[in-house]
Amino acid sequence: xxxxxxxxxxxxxxxxxxxxxxxxxxxxxxxxxxxxxxxxxxxxxxxxxxxxxxxxxxxxxxxxxxxxxxxxxxxxxxxxxxxxxxxxxxxxxxxxxxxxxxxxxxxxxxxxxxxxxxxxxxxxxxxxxxxxxxxxxxxxxxxxxxxxxxxxxxxxxxxxxxxxxxxxxxxxxxxxxxxxxxxxxxxxxxxxxxxxxxxxxxxxxxxxxxxxxxxxxxxxxxxxxxxxxxxxxxxxxxxxxxxxxxxxxxxxxxxxxxxxxxxxxxxxxxxxxxxxxxxxxxxxxxxxxxxxxxxxxxxxxxxxxxxxxxxxxxxxxxxxxxxxxxxxxxxxxxxxxxxxxxxxxxxxxxxxxxxxxxxxxxxxxxxxxxxxxxxxxxxxxxxxxxxxxxxxxxxxxxxxxxxxxxxxxxxxxxxxxxxxxxxxxxxxxxxxxxxxxxxxxxxxxxxxxxxxxxxxxxxxxxxxxxxxxxxxxxxxxxxxxxxxxxxxxxxxxxxxxxxxxxxxxxxxxxxxxxxxxxxxxxxxxxxxxxxxxxxxxxxxxxxxxxx
Length: 547
Known about the structure:
Layout: H1 10-22, H2 26-39, H3 43-46, H4 58-72, H5 75-91, H6 95-117, H7 131-142, H8 144-148, H9 161-188, H10 192-203, H11 212-228, H12 232-246, H13 251-267, H14 271-287, H15 291-306, H16 315-328, H17 336-351, H18 355-369, H19 375-391, H20 395-409, H21 418-431, H22 436-449, H23 453-469, H24 473-489, H25 493-509, H26 513-526, H27 532-546
C-alpha cells in the first residue's frame, strides 16, 4: 500500500474525491476511485476510518469505499461501507448523507431479493419483502415539492440564512440521488407498477437541472423502462441518441451509455455492435487513466465471447485484450471482477495452446473461487488447470485436479456429472500415456459416484475402453456386455451398439473371427444398415476373417 511520500496519501485522496463528487466532476471522481482500488483497497482498513483523516471525513471515506467495492463486485464490503456511512451520517445529523447511504442500502435490498428470495425470472417482490425500498419510496413522495423545486440553489458554506439554504440544497440533491436509486431498485425487483410513480417524478424534474449525473440517470431510467416493457430496440436507440448528443463532452456518461448499448445489442443479436461499444470504452478508459472502467469493459467483452459470438475478436486478439486488463488490475483486490478477468486470460492462454501460462493462473483462480458461490467460474478454472496439467504431462497433478473438479460438480447441477467427469478424465489420461494406477484410482472414485443406470452403463463402457487400451480382450468383452445390457435397460440401443463396437475392435485386433461375428450380429439387431457404425464394424469383421 503506497502511503509514503512517493505515493498517494489516503486523507488527500478522500478529500479530493469528496470535492470532485460535490462538484459533479465524475471524471476526476472515477479516476480517484481507480487510484483507491490500486493502492488502498484493504478490508482491514475499512474498519479503521481514522486513517482517512478527521472524523468529519469518515462519511466521504465510506462513500469512496462503497463506490469502489460496488464496482469491483465486492458486495459484502460495499454493503458494510453503506451501513457505516449511514450510521456516521445519523450520528452527525447529516441529513443529506443519511439519504445517500440509505439509497445504497435500498439497492442492496433489491440485490438480496433477486439473489435469494425470487423464484424464477417473472417473480415480483411483495412490498413486505422489500421493506426499506417500500418505505423510501413513500418518503421520497412526501418530499415531492422539494424535489421539483426550481429555486433551490447552492449558496456556499456560509452561516445563518445562507447555511440553511445550503442544507436545503444538499438535501434536495441527496433526495434526487435517492429517487434514481430507489427507482432502479424497484425495477430490479420487478415492481414496474411502483417504479412508474417515481419515473413520473423524474420526468418532472425542472428543465434547468443540467447535472451530468442527472441527465445520464434520466436517460438510463427511461431506457430501463422501455426495456422492461420489451422495447429493447427503442431502449438502445435512446442510449445511442444521448451518446451522440453528449459527444466527447462527458467521459463517464459516454462509458455508461456504451455499456448499456452493449447489453441491449447482445439481446438483439448484435454482438459486433456490443464488442465495438466495449472496445471504445477500453480506449477511452486508457486515455483517461480509468483502470476500473477498463477492467469492467473487458469483463463484459469476455461474457459476450462466452455465449458463442462469431463476430468477436480471435483468441489471439482476445488474449491480448485480457492480458492488458489483467495487468491494469494489478494491485486491485482479489474479487469477482478481477477473478473474471484472470479467468478470461487463462481461458485464452488455453485456447491458443499456451498451457504453461494457463495452468498456474487457472489453478490460482479455482483456489480463490471455491470459497464463493460462483460454481461456474470455479468449474471452468479447475477444468482448464486439470487439462493444462495433462497437456504438460503432469499426469499425477492432473488427476488430483480432476478429482477436485468432480467434488465441485457434486455440489451443483453441472452439465457433466461427477462420475462422468472422472470417467472421462481416466480415459484422457490413459490416452495421454498416464500410468494405469492413475486411471484405476479415478475409475474407483467414479464408481462411488455413479447415480443411476445410465451412469452405470457409461462406467462399464469406460472400463471396456480402458481394458481395450490395455490389450485385455477378456476384460473388454465382459465390460462391453455389461454396458450394453445396462444401455438397453434405459432404452438406448444406439449406445449399446457403440459399446459393443469396442468388443468388435478388440476381437479384430486379436484375430478372433468368431467373437467378432457374434458382436457384429448383435449390433446389426440394434441399428439400421444406414447407421455410420454399421459399415465400420463390418469392415472390422472382414479384417478379422482375413487373418
